[in-house]
Amino acid sequence: MEIREYVVRRLLKLPLLLFLVSVLVFGLSRIGGSPIGIYLEHDMTHEQVVELEERFGLDESLPEQYVAWLGGLFRGDLGFSAVSAAPVATVLPEKLAASLELSVLAAFIAFGLGIGLGTFGGARRDRFADHATRVIAVSGASLPLFWFALLVLILFYLVLGWAPLGRSDPYLYGQIVHPTGLYSVDALLNGHWPAFVDAIRHLWLPALVLGYEGLATITRVMRSSLVDELQEDYVDLARSKGLPERFVIKRHARRNALMPTVTVMGVAFGLLLQGSVVVELIFQWPGLGRWIATAVLRGDQATIMAFVLVAAVIFLLANLAVDVAYAYLDRRVVLGE
């Protein structure tokens, strides 16, 4: 099956998978408690509680409630976010843009530097460079994310003052228009250099912390895979032909070493989404992670359900990208249905 046909088939199956996710999310939300719990007060009368239940359609059967909720999704009505005091559909794009900006830079750090460091260390096995990259890999995998985040926050925020908290300076933020919601991109589109520099100053440290765990995982796998590939017969054959070592690594060994690394990238992407909650809370980043943490603590089911659906879409697309990348690297892979 051609890659293009495979992608189309996977995308056509996406609505069915999202439907199953929506059923699961809705069922778990009802098991977890009433959606109106966040609005209840101690001095409310029984009549007031009944009125709230009728307003949210809780006086109907569960299938009818699900159909009503699903119909709202198709209309773009994701409910009301009590933690933001605004409709979820209004708040979600802003929070998603903030998390997307943070996660994209973190992904570049994890994937780009991870592959580069793994290649650099694997090509210099048992030398100082190899030991240095292994220290990075082991430390990133063993340090608790919250502890590492607090450590660098104390160093770069309190001691050195290099990285401010939050997402931007309010004064500079108000000087530009925001067509994409990505502050650094919007600053470039506006040609506002001070705003772009301000965006990077706020962005680089939380992105580094968020991507460090994935960087360590990818570095370790890439280094081990490259070491194994460099011991294969086809590498010895390429060397015997007089090819430069850099060419042998870049054009032969590294491509094959990337195959197990690409598989791990799917796991590393999940670490980014999981770690964004901790990082956004510590660095006061106004994204999905901080939003969902507040929603969980307050029992805001509309916000929680919207987050889970968005996370499901992201994971499904990430897994599709990993499968396609794996098939591209190894033409022997047969893409199934």
Give an account of the 3D structure.
Strands 1-2 form a two-stranded antiparallel sheet. It folds into two domains: 79 residues, no CATH class; 239 residues, MetI-like fold. The chain is an all-alpha fold and 337 residues long. Helices cover 74% and strands 1% of the residues. The chain is globular, with a radius of gyration of 24 Å. 31% of the residues are buried. The chain contains 13 helices and two strands; from the N terminus they run H-H-H-E-E-H-H-H-H-H-H-H-H-H-H. It starts with a helix and ends in an 8-residue tail after the last helix.
Percent of sequence in beta strands: under 5%
Output the radius of gyration: 24 Å
Reported by name, the CATH topology of the largest domain is: MetI-like fold
CATH architecture of the largest domain: Orthogonal Bundle
How many strand segments?
2
CATH superfamily of the largest domain: MetI-like
Distance between the termini: 8 Å
Number of helices: 13
Per the principal axes of the C-alpha atoms, what is the gross shape?
Answer: globular
Structural class: mainly alpha
Oligomer: single chain
Summarize the structure.
With 337 residues, the chain is an all-alpha fold.
Name the descriptors.
two-stranded antiparallel sheet; 337 residues; 2 strands; mainly alpha; MetI-like fold; 2 domains; globular
SSE layout:
Elements: H1 3-31, H2 46-55, H3 62-74, E1 80-81, E2 86-87, H4 88-122, H5 128-142, H6 145-159, H7 170-173, H8 183-189, H9 193-229, H10 233-240, H11 245-282, H12 288-298, H13 301-329
Antiparallel strand pairs: 1-2
Helix pairs in contact: 1-13, 4-5, 4-9, 4-11, 5-9, 6-9, 6-11, 8-9, 9-11, 10-11, 11-12, 11-13, 12-13
